[in-house]
């Protein structure tokens, strides 16, 4: 049987730096666990634009559709800020999400014990935190039509459209309810039904799917602005949060800080099952290309490493190996190994991106 296949799209900025550490871990699984992946690499984002004049070449898109999963680093950077909107690096990632139909974006926010002191919130607020944000990823205001910058009279007007169909809401709701059943059986749905018709429909459909198919799951609804406040006030009240594309983007960056750093938050973007029964999938850290620290060996690779752990679990049915990798990360943090973003006001000596990767590999060795 063919080895499971992975397409690596490291992208821009710190993307290739954090992905280099994931490649070490893929090498470790091959050498030490006999788990061999067929890995291919290609370009996405600004680096693809530099080479092909487009942030995602059609051949790359076709490869992404064929592999068992895609691992992505990050895209974007100031060099590309003034490009035409249609070829901006971020469009490459949005095209991947849309054409692979990756409608369910799982963004777990877990506070490792070793980092509970380090969060910007009080220790008792974040210690033991373990929540998942399920973000709708292929619709809503990031994709709705009409969109654009137009001229009306003597001024410009920028338009984006929030649009959700019933079936788009229903499928991501199911994904959240399924996730809750595997966890603590609680879903909180967030929208702005007080001011948006799309929010009213969102609330109705989530409630209907709940009542018909998941009556055993505890469901609550919250306006997304209040949800943002509650995430900071007492995040442990949540188990699974389901929300739309834009609110999910904002709420998950906020949730990242509960865990200590944006450099800690992984994600899985999942679609419909393929012929092999596993979902179409792309795994990426929640953070971006971090141009302020790119090229300096300062980036925290843990979000990217934990995204690979999610790939082991969701794309390769290797839940035990995913847990092994997550425990290796936990061990390294408990030993006090820290990249610069995890340094508190008391200071200390941060390790480089590469040294963090090496420490995780050493912890994997110690797990054997
Ligand atoms: N999925 C993706 O590829 C995403 C791409 N972007 C793009 O990235 C570029 C920069 O965007 P920003 O708003 O600055 O967001 P960002 O997430 O790249 O950076 C925000 C802040 O967090 C820090 N940070 C992020 N990841 C880190 C890591 N692994 N280790 C240590 N520190 C880390 C950065 O240094 C920066 O201070 C933009 O072009 C944006 O469009 C932004 C978000 C997601
Ligand atoms: C296309 C991305 C740059 C948008 C984003 O911030 C994200 O998906 O987290
Ligand atoms: Mg974001």
TrEMBL record:
Residues binding Mg(2+), per UniProt: 225, 249, 253
Site (Important for catalysis): 142, 192
Principal subcellular localisation of the protein: cytoplasm
Reactions this protein catalyses: (2R,3S)-3-isopropylmalate + NAD(+) = 4-methyl-2-oxopentanoate + CO2 + NADH
Chain residues that bind NAD(+): 77-90, 288-300
Cofactor binding summary note: Binds 1 Mg(2+) or Mn(2+) ion per subunit.
Pfam families cross-referenced by the UniProt entry: Iso_dh (PF00180)
Catalytic class of the enzyme: oxidoreductase
Annotated positions binding substrate: 97, 107, 135, 225
UniProt EC number: 1.1.1.85
Keyword terms: Amino-acid biosynthesis, Branched-chain amino acid biosynthesis, Cytoplasm, Leucine biosynthesis, Magnesium, Manganese, Metal-binding, NAD, Oxidoreductase
Domain Isopropylmalate dehydrogenase-like: 5-360
Residues passing through the membrane, by range: none
Cofactor(s) the record lists: Mg(2+); Mn(2+)
Compartments, as annotated in UniProt: Cytoplasm
Family: Belongs to the isocitrate and isopropylmalate dehydrogenases family. LeuB type 1 subfamily.
The protein's assembly and partners: Homodimer.
Protein's name in the database: 3-isopropylmalate dehydrogenase
Species assigned in the record: Gemmobacter nanjingensis
């Amino acid at each position: 049987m063919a080895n499971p296949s992975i397409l690596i799209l490291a992208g821009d900025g710190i993307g290739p730096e954090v992905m280099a550490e994931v490649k070490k871990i893929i090498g470790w699984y091959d050498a030490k666990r006999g788990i061999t992946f067929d890995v291919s690499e290609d370009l996405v984002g600004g680096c693809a634009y530099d080479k092909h004049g487009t942030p995602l070449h059609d051949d790359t898109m076709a490869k992404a559709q064929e592999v068992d999963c895609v691992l992505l680093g990050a895209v974007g950077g100031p060099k590309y800020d003034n490009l035409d909107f249609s070829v901006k690096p971020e469009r490459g990632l949005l095209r991947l999400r849309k054409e692979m139909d990756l409608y369910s974006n799982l963004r777990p926010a877990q506070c490792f014990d070793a980092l509970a002191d380090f969060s910007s919130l009080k220790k008792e607020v974040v210690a033991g935190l373990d929540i998942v944000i399920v973000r709708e990823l292929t619709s809503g205001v990031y994709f709705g039509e009409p969109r654009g910058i137009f001229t009306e009279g003597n001024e410009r007007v920028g338009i984006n459209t929030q649009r959700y169909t019933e079936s788009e809401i229903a499928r991501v709701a199911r994904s959240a309810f399924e996730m809750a059943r595997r966890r603590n059986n609680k879903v909180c749905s967030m929208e702005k039904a007080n001011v948006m018709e799309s929010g009213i429909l969102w609330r109705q459909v989530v409630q209907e799917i709940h009542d018909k198919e998941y009556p055993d799951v505890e469901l609550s609804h919250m306006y997304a602005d209040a949800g943002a406040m509650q995430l900071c006030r007492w995040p442990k009240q949540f188990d699974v949060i389901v929300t739309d594309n834009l609110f999910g983007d904002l709420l998950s960056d906020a949730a990242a800080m509960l865990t200590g750093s944006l450099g800690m938050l992984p994600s899985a973007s999942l679609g419909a099952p393929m012929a092999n029964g596993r979902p179409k999938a792309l795994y990426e850290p929640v953070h971006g290309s971090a141009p302020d620290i790119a090229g300096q060996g300062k980036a925290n690779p843990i979000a990217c490493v934990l995204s690979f752990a999610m790939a082991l679990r969701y794309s390769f049915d290797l839940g035990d190996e995913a847990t092994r990798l997550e425990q290796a990360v936990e061990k390294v943090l408990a030993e006090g190994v820290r990249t610069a973003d995890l340094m508190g006001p008391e200071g200390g000596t941060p390790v480089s991106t590469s040294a963090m990767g090496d420490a995780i590999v050493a912890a994997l060795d110690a797990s054997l």
